[in-house]
Amino acid sequence: MLMTTNEPAPADPTGGMTAEESAALYRLMTWLSPSFPVGAFSYSSGIEWAVEAGDITDAASLRDWLAAMLSEGSGFCDAVLLAQAHRAAAAQDGAALHEIAELAAAFVPSRERQLETSTQGRAFIEIARSAWACDGLDEMVAACGGVVYPVAVGVVSAAHAVPLAPAMHAFLHAVVSNWISAGARLVPLGQTDSQRILASLEADVAATAKRALIASLDDLGSATFRADLASLRHETQYTRLFRS
Question: Helix, strand or coil for residue 127?
Fold first, then answer.
């Protein structure tokens, strides 16, 4: 006798991914890799001034500075903007996408941070379009007007049907990794200390992503005043290795 069941199909015994999952993972690993040529290595987000001022002197102080930037500063704000841009692009809501892009550009606290995020955003869009062209991406980019980095990642991820949650985690991991790389060169720190900092921020990245996924634009806000001042004072710093 034939029988039916509402139980889900058994998992793939090989532990493999679907074609869509494989493509999404492959693209995220590429787009948010340190080798993806958006010029992230040129920017420190004010960390260079913080080292010069003595706010960051070792691995522990760098870790504390980055944890604050991530959870209470630009990390959280950029994550919220990425989420909102992803949702608007997925819904093909050009008007909402334009408003989000304008707000994201206006929310940057200093001239150098504006240069950092807008330059990386443009590079991300241009390279992604050249190597991974897809239907609808040009229209989404045109709707934005100007594109800063988190909005660019949100729009491209949505255009390629990459789910928001993994895109968010990959973005925050890339941002934190670049901050650590800058700090390691400036303090300086060794590779082991750098990896220890990255490992210690794992829970902070997960918590920030979780908050950002349920946040609205009304929840945007930063409490990292010292980091904002660092990005402003870096503009007149005498000796500089980084552009921000």
Answer: helix
Tokens of 144: 């934005």
Q: How far is CA 128 from CA 43, 131, 137, in A?
A: 21, 5, 10
| Integer Cα distance of 40 and 243 in angstroms | 10
Q: DSSP letter string over 157-216?
A: HHHTT--HHHHHHHHHHHHHHHHHHHHHHHTT--HHHHHHHHHHTHHHHHHHHHHHHH--
Indicate the range of 14-23, 93-102, 180-189 predicted with least confidence.
14-23
HSE-up of 1 (CA within 13 Å, CB side)? 2
pTM of this prediction? 0.93
What is the C-alpha R_g of the chain? 19
The answer to whether 186 and 54 have CB atoms below 8 angstroms apart is: no
Q: Measured between alpha carbons, how far is 17 from 87 in angstroms, rounded to an integer?
A: 24
Q: What is the pLDDT of residues 170-229, one digit of tens each?
A: 999 999 999 999 999 999 999 999 999 999 999 999 999 999 999 999 999 999 999 999
pLDDT tens track for 108-131: 989 999 999 999 999 999 999 999
